[in-house]
Amino acid sequence: MPSRRVHELFDLLFLGRRYSKVHRTLDAPSKMLGQSHRSLLHDPMSAMLIGAVLTGDMRGALSALLHIWTDKNATRALKKLGRESSKR
Questions:
Q1: Cα gap 87→83, rounded to integer Å
Q2: Angle of helix 58-86 relative to helix 44-55, nearest 10 degrees?
Q3: CA 1: distance to chain centroid?
Q4: What is the DSSP string of 33-67?
Q5: N or C: at which end does the chain have fewer Cβ atoms within 10 angstroms?
Q6: What is the DSSP letter of 11?
Q7: Are 37 and 53 contacting, i.e. CB atoms less than 8 angstroms apart?
């Protein structure tokens, strides 16, 4: 799971500022659910709504979408790396 720092780095690169509150909110269930927290709030509609409401602007919504995209693709990449290293 990418750290908040990674999410904020993507915010800076693509949106020009950090949206920490969005990332804290989306990842809040992880304290109890671990990686399965992604079953909550990590669909595009919910994430965008949370981002827009928390920040009052559409870049917050985009930050939330970027958050779920980063989570999904980081997990895929790690799984792929694990498969490749086990072939050696």
A1: 7
A2: 140
A3: 9
A4: HGGGGGGSS-SHHHHHHHHHHHHSSHHHHHHHHHH
A5: C
A6: H
A7: no
- 4 neighbors 27 (Cβ within 8 angstroms): yes
- Round the CA-based radius of gyration of the chain to a whole number and report it: 14
One pLDDT digit (tens) per residue for the chain, 88 residues: 788 899 999 999 999 999 999 999 998 877 776 666 666 677 899 999 999 999 999 999 999 999 999 988 877 776 776 765 555 5
The two tokens of residue 9 are 């780095």
Q: Which two tokens stand for residue 65?
A: 């979408």
Number of neighbours of residue 20 by Cβ within 10 angstroms: 14
CB distance 3 to 76 below 8 Å: no
